[in-house]
Amino acid sequence: xxxxxxxxxxxxxxxxxxxxxxxxxxxxxxxxxxxxxxxxxxxxxxxxxxxxxxxxxxxxxxxxxxxxxxxxxxxxxxxxxxxxxxxxxxxxxxxxxxxxxxxxxxxxxxxxxxxxxxxxxxxxxxxxxxxxxxxxxxxxxxxxxxxxxxxxxxxxxxxxxxxxxxxxxxxxxxxxxxxxxxxxxxxxxxxxxxxxxxxxxxxxxxxxxxxxxxxxxxxxxxxxxxxxxxxxxxxxxxxxxxxxxxxxxxxxxxxxxxxxxxxxxxxxxxxxxxxxxxxxxxxxxxxxxxxxxxxxxxxxxxxxxxxxxxxxxxxxxxxxxxx
Length: 323
What we know:
Layout: E1 11-16, H1 22-37, E2 41-46, H2 51-64, E3 68-71, H3 79-88, E4 93-96, E5 109-113, H4 115-134, H5 141-146, E6 150-155, H6 161-174, E7 180-185, H7 190-203, E8 207-212, H8 215-229, E9 242-247, H9 250-257, E10 263-266, H10 269-284, E11 293-296, E12 299-301, H11 303-308
Parallel strand pairs: 1-2, 1-3, 3-4, 4-5, 5-11, 6-7, 6-8, 8-9, 9-10
Antiparallel strand pairs: 10-12
Helix pairs in contact: 1-10, 2-3, 4-6, 7-8
């Protein structure tokens, strides 16, 4: 392990994947606010979605001798090496938002949303809206089997554990229906999602629902719909494509309030960041984390909730936003 940081102030390395999403901006805000409240110094590294870059950054943090590391794994498999670097240096490492499950990688605690449950909730809401449109009961298995048509399962980054878990939750719900599922990969990016969805919508004009792995995907799909259809139909128009996102990002919340996107399953990144630092403090004070896995709540946000909770949602509390 490297030399301890000078001055007696404990330093926590924060290895983030990017600042390209408001979700990660919110997470960083929660982490840095709580680190300051606890009297810790932050050493923040941004991997720009590159697993090799993140490994180099973790190695640098270990050589500096930081007291603890908080990491959003850039890749589920690649992050194993990052954890092993911290383990070898006897530095406690905490995963936030994404997991590292290899038993050889000793993570002090993982703090994240239950992504499988998020995927299920997003898909269930989309299916319920389709059932309402077709006069079917989403609570009846026989009616779910009568639900036919095309739905797009719009993935994020396939290598991210959060995407893998969300996909499992989405697939669990969609398999109970008679829907034909088309798969596309939006890479958690509005730009990529727009580019992927435009030709898919052209080739499949009867798509009725798009369930997205995050809100950037949803924004990209929304833009692709405008590219192809030139307008967004009214909410009660049977030709309108139902859009469901995840995370609760500011651009999506604005679209939901405007009635342009049906809903999102919101995480709580500020709360997630603060809770992670609280667990770090327990370890740095000589104790143990509360649990090896700590789930953070998630909430379905439709237009009703988005308007009623204005000012209280995490996206309304951001001090800065992604460019």
